[in-house]
Specification:
- The mean pLDDT is 95.
- The chain is α/β, with parallel strands linked by helices.
- The protein starts with 10 loop residues before the first helix and ends with a strand.
- The protein is globular and about 45 Å long.
- The protein contains eight helices and seven strands; from the N terminus they run αααβαβαββαβααββ.
- A hairpin with a 2-residue loop joins strand 6 and strand 7.
- The protein has a single domain, classed as Rossmann fold (3-Layer(aba) Sandwich).
- 38% of the residues lie in helices and 23% in strands.
- It has a seven-stranded mixed β-sheet with strand order 3-2-1-4-5-7-6, sandwiched between helices.
- Bound molecules: S-adenosylmethionine (SAM).
- The site of S-adenosylmethionine has 21 residues, from helix 1.
Length: 226
């Protein structure tokens, strides 16, 4: 008999983002770690990718410090919603883009309480969210996509980036960070693979692109399946 899998525990992947951690987040994660551990530079790869698909009706999920939105000029009449489980992240990101009056939505992508209601968006970003979540890529990505896809307009795009697991063949620094973060539950990505991400996206979308830069998987998905 197969054992039913335990419910995915969301707490650890979000709890670490205190005000103090968020203050150093841009320098430590987006500056140092992305360059030297994950080999996927923020300024040359991730920020241009974020900007490329940002629409005037956007939902950012797993907002952290709000760096990407703060460094994107936005479109005329820009509407932005921020969704996160952690109030500190929502506050930090929200205050950085206060000029666009973002709507702040506190909810859990794994166990949503329906805080987004019936709202729909032309673009949804999830940068560095999946690797923070527990469970296999198949389990967690299915939960996240079941939560988010109903909020994407038919012509919309869902896109993001996530640090891959051991298959990425991490360098010395990456292996140390992976071991520490997975032990503490800050990451849950030890077994995350590019192929499993691609295959879950294919369950929800007719048009999917997944590629790798350094140790990071980037993805873009369009044409949600009915
Ligand atoms: C590593 S940060 C990513 C920040 C930003 N997107 C970036 O790429 O720099 C992960 C964010 O996801 C949020 N988060 C983690 N688990 C979550 C969950 N189950 N539901 C919603 N947000 C979650 C955390 O609170 C945190 O703000």
């Amino acid at each position: 008999m197969t054992k039913p899998s335990a419910p995915l525990d969301s707490e650890h992947g979000a709890a670490v983002y205190s005000d103090r951690v968020l203050k150093i987040y841009d320098r430590w994660v987006l500056g140092f770690s992305n360059n030297y551990a994950w080999k996927c530079p923020t300024d040359a790869v991730l920020l241009p990718f974020f900007r490329q698909h940002l629409s005037s009706n956007h939902l950012d999920v797993g907002v952290g410090s709000g760096y990407y939105l703060a460094h994107s000029s936005g479109q005329p009449g820009q509407k932005v919603a921020l969704l996160d489980l952690n109030d500190n992240s929502l506050r930090a990101a929200g205050s950085r883009i206060a000029h666009v009056q973002p709507s702040l939505v506190r909810d859990d992508v794994l166990h949503p309480a329906g805080a987004l209601g019936g709202r729909k968006f032309d673009s949804i970003s999830l940068f560095y969210l999946l690797h923070c979540l527990p469970g296999t890529m198949t389990e967690k990505a299915r939960k996240v996509l079941s939560t988010l896809v109903p909020h994407l307009t038919p012509g919309g795009v869902l896109y993001g980036a996530t640090i891959l697991g051991e298959e990425a063949n991490h360098n010395w620094l990456g292996r140390r960070l992976m071991a520490l973060y997975n032990r503490k539950g800050i990451f849950g990505n030890r077994h995350d693979t590019l192929a499993s991400l691609q295959s879950v996206l294919n369950e929800y979308f007719a048009k999917v692109a997944v590629w790798q830069v350094g140790k990071v998987a980037l993805f873009r998905a369009e044409m949600p399946l009915p």
